[in-house]
Each structure stands twice: as structure tokens, then as C-alpha cells.
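Next comes this protein.

***
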Amino acid sequence: MLETGSATMPINTIPIFSMAVLACWLGLSLLVRTPQQRQTQLFAWLCLNLTLYGLTAVLPQFTTAPEVALVLLRLHTAESVLLPPIFLHFLALLVARNPFPAWQRVIGAAFYILSFTLALYALVAPGMQLIERAGWATLRFPAGPLVLAWAIVRIIPLLLGLLVLIIGYRRTNDTFARRRLALVALAALTGVGGALWIIIGRELALSLTSGHLLMAAALVIFAYTVLSHHSLLPERVAQRAFYRSLAGGVLTALYIGALLVAEPLVAAWLQIEVPIVTMISLTTLIAVFGPLRDHAGEWFDRRFFQREFDYSRLLRAVSTDLLERSDLTGQVRAALLSICSTLDLQGGLVAIRHGAGLRILALHGDQAPPQAMLDHAALPITSLAGSAWDVWPAARLLVPLRSHDEIVGVVALRERRSGEPFSPTEHALLDSLGSYMALAIRHAQRQQEEELAMAALAEQSRQLQIEQEQLQAQARAILHTPAETLPGRLHVFALGPLRVERGGRPIERWGGDKAGTYQAEALFAFLFDRRGRGISKDEAAEVIWPDLMIDKADMAFHRTISALRRTLEPGLRRAGESRTITFHHDRYWLNPDLIAWCDTDQFSSTTAQAHRALRDGDGEQAYTLFLHALALYRGEYLDDCPFFGDSSYVEERRSELRESQIDALIALGTIYEQREQIGEAATCYRRAITAAGGSNPRAEERLAQLQVTL
């Protein structure tokens, strides 16, 4: 009959309880750091079983419920046979370089099957024997073959694990790998020694405390080895993370242990059953955990890892300088000063690509290489230490500034005032800072490229406007028709569906009573588009009557152009008297003075003025002009215009106006960015991408910099 324990935790249970808490803490700590690593997953599984093993050994010793104690002891016995195969599996996976050979898989599967069978028996079979020795209650299998199987499944996998380590150590030639395997072997030997102590101690009625202490020590060594092997950080940073985890695990174990000891004492003193100590302690812990963890971590780093503490401050300072300063030179100078101050360097410089050589962007110290030497200096592809740079012999470390696959510059650093070499941690730190600086430099260069491109586009727009004005002047010189003598002049809306107004009323019947309205409207659109150049009869027939024979196309053309003339000049008697559409040099011309206003000319002139105002620094004027210009852009140039709107003749002018719209949207987006109206800026960039057919690198890059999705 199982005797119930006391309400207080026995002193001999503290080692195994601490081992359980430490296993839980370290297993989870390693798993969240590298959850994809198979070795880490198996180590976490091993730690979980160790946690269950420790808790199911401790709790029966002080529970007051016999039936609960019996269930826990069954679980403890099941864990005693599950742990050795998992331990062997973990060591084999840690040492193996390739998939396990077939014989190893067979042996492993056999031990797993045997251990699961015995575990199931321990959980449900009624024949388990209760043994109580030296105040410690355990269960054992009934005498016979099961006892032998119990011994085999507990001892043989432990010894095979040691054998696997020895074989792996002898086959490894790499110095680092052998050192790692030596640590693993030390941990495994310590853990196996503790496990054998517990197995033999139960049979000889010895104290199990020493065995539990050995297993806890093995667990700590295992955790350190696995963490240092899988961490991608420099060795010193990995060591720092390990000590933090270890300290956290130990403090957690001590905290929980103190609660378990103090709770029954306070309950007995106050004669209450309410867990008042636990409630107050947890409330206090929740309130102070965050600040206490930050202060403890800062003290820990300052006390034991002063360099890493300074390096983290340096990273924050440089990133802040690069983000908060507006000019590139100020950003880089502040970053270089922070680096030289923190690392106690004699000086340094930052040079960027300039033509066939380099140009100094920032300098710290009183010595620099001559610019003549930098004019033909090549950028280093990888970090160089020592006097490897002939351009500046004073440099002791070169850090290339790499943005993706492009090297935009180099950081050259002189030696430290103390004369000490740069450590691996400092190399890693400077590589990270180099990435920050490369990003800032490349961003500034792209902004400058965009500004130059916008200035070039504005100049092209200005030249186009000048050419249009010259063509119109030439046409007026040919036609010799004063604008004031023309009949009602027209207002043309060609951005979007074509709409033409005369005297405030739209023209709807383009062909009158003798010609088709659609054909006459297409002919007017063709003449309007070719102002200053004119069109030939064949060009018009090709666009409007492509399926008619030549003689019928000629008749249709003359009938349509005659009707169009009378639509534009009501009361016209003969074609030769027309002042709106004339025939000269075998081409038909639309008198440009007939157009009092059109949205295409207004759009082009307004966008040109807006770009000029933006280039001159007048953001408010540019903002107003861009809004006005974009309001005119109702749609694609001559969209839905019959016949002519689908011809190849319209594409060139349509593409020019579309590009002008995209440029205006991107420029307006930059103005919104300067106003910190991020939503409006993103909308402009999205409209530019839509106008470009779904892809525009400039707008997409601006959205990416705003961290806004398409």
C-alpha cells in the first residue's frame, strides 16, 4: 500500500526537481532559437521527457493522494524506459553526417519498440511492484523476463550512445568538430554515469541524489554544446546568449523551489489552505518581470560582456544617424565618427564609387590618401585586414559597402590606439554597419538619379512644346487666315472620349445629312492629331475605309470631308472657300487657329510648368499645377474615337501623353511624401503603376521605400 507523502518538499527531491525545471527551460530556449534544425527538435524532445521524468519522480514523494501518487509513479517508470532510446537517437543524429545506415535504423527501431512496449505495460498493467527505500517510493517490473528487458532497454542504449560518440570522434579530422564532440562526450559520460548510478542505486538502496546531480550537469553541458554548434552568431554572442539562458533557468528553478518550500510553511503558520504565497509572488513577478529583465540583462552585459554592450549602442547610434539626418554626407560622417569612437580607432574614411575610381565622402583623423591615388583605386570585393590596400597604407581594415550584389563604396579604418587587432565579433559588427551605410548611400544615389531623370523629362517636355509652337506658327504662315475671321472656334477635349464644343454646345452630327457621323468624326480626329503636318487622302482612306476599293474610298473621302467642312463652317458654299480645312501640297490641313482651346495642349503646358516649379523649389506651386493637370486627364488620348482611336497613327501621341501623366503622378507622390501624407503618396504611385500597365519600376521602388504593398 502506497503511503502518502508530506505537504512539504523533501530535501532529497531538490536536485531532480531542479533538473526538471532546467530541462524545460533549456529545451524551449534552444527550440525557439533554431526550430528548423532536426538536432534541436530532438534535443527539445529529450528535454521534455527529462522534465516529465523529474516531475513524476518528485511529485509522488509529497502528494497526499495515494491514487495520484500511483499514477505519477507509473508515468515515471514509463519515462525511465523511454529516455535511453531517445538519448541514443539524439547522439546518433548529432554525430551522423549522412542518413543512418540500415543496421543502425533496425537497432534504433528495435529499442524504440521495446521501450514503448515496456512503457505501455508500466502505465496499464496491474502487476507493477511498489518499492519504498530510504523514503523514496518507486515502481519496478515483476520478476522475470520483464526485469531483464527493463535493464536492457535502460543500460544498452546508454552504452551504445557512448560508443557512437567514440566512433564519431575517431572519424572526425576537423579540429573544431573534434572539440565539439569532446564536449558532447563529456556531457554524455556525465549523464550516463548519473543514469547508471540511479539504476544501480535503486537496486542497492543507495541515495539517488548524486545521480540526479550528474544528470543535471550533463544537461547543462549538452545545452551549451548544441547552442554553440547551431548558432549563426559570432562565438562570443552565442556564449552570451547561453549564459543568459542558463542564468534564467537557474533563477527560475530557484524561484519555483522557493515557492514550493515557502507555501506549506506559511500555510501551516497561518492555518489556511489558500496558496497566498504563490498568488502574491506571481502578481509581483508579473508586475516587475519586464523592467527587471531589462535591468538584469543590461547589468549582465555591462558586467561580463562590456564589448557587446558598447557594440549594441554603436548599432543603435549608427542606424539612428542614417535615418534621422537628411543629407548623405552628414549621415556618413556621423556613422564614421561613432565607429571610430566606440572602437577607439586612430581614424578612418568612407569612399564611394566615382567614375573609374573613388571619392572620399567622410574622413575622421588627420591623415588621408591623396585624391590622385583614389581616382584610379579599385573597390575591394571582400573585407581585407592588414596593409593590403596600397592606396592608403595606414588602413588596417577594409569593409566593402555592399548593397545586394553591388559594391557602392568602402570603409577604410586605421589601427586601434591600443594596438589590438580587430576581433571576429568586430568584423561581424562592421559588416552589419557596412550594410546600413550601403543602403543609405544607394538610396541617396537613386534619389539623385530620379531628380536628374525628372529634370531631363521636363526639358524634353519643354522642347516638345517649343516644337509644337513652331509647327503651329509654320501652319499659320501657310494658311494666312487670321483667327478672328474664322467662324465659331472650338474647344476640344481629347483626353478620354473625344468631345468638341462650339459656343458651349457639343458637336454631335459630324457628317451632316450627306456623310456618316462616325467617319466624319474620325476624319476630324485625324486632322486634329496631325495639326501642323496635315494628312493625305490615302492615309485617311487607310484608317477609315480600309476595306473599300480605291475609287469607292476616294468618293467616300471627298463626301465625308465636304460634309465635315460644312459642319465646321455652317453656310459654306464651295470647298475651295473653306478656311477651316484647306488643301495644300497634296495634303489636307486643319487650321490650328480654329482650336481655341484643347485639353492636350493645356495638360502638356501645365505639367511643364509644374516640373519647372518643382525644380525651382516652389513645392506649393508645383502641387497646385500637378493637381490641375491630372484633373484634365480623363482617360487615354482619343479613347473610343471611331476608327482613328484604334489606328497606329494615334499610338505615338497617346504614349507621350501617358508618360507625361505617369511622370506627373510620381512627382506629385514625392510632394505628398515631403508633406508626410503617406496615403496620398501611395495612391499616386499606385495610379502610376496602373497607368503604366501594371509595372513601373520607379513607382514600385517608391512604394517599397514607403513599406506599402501594391
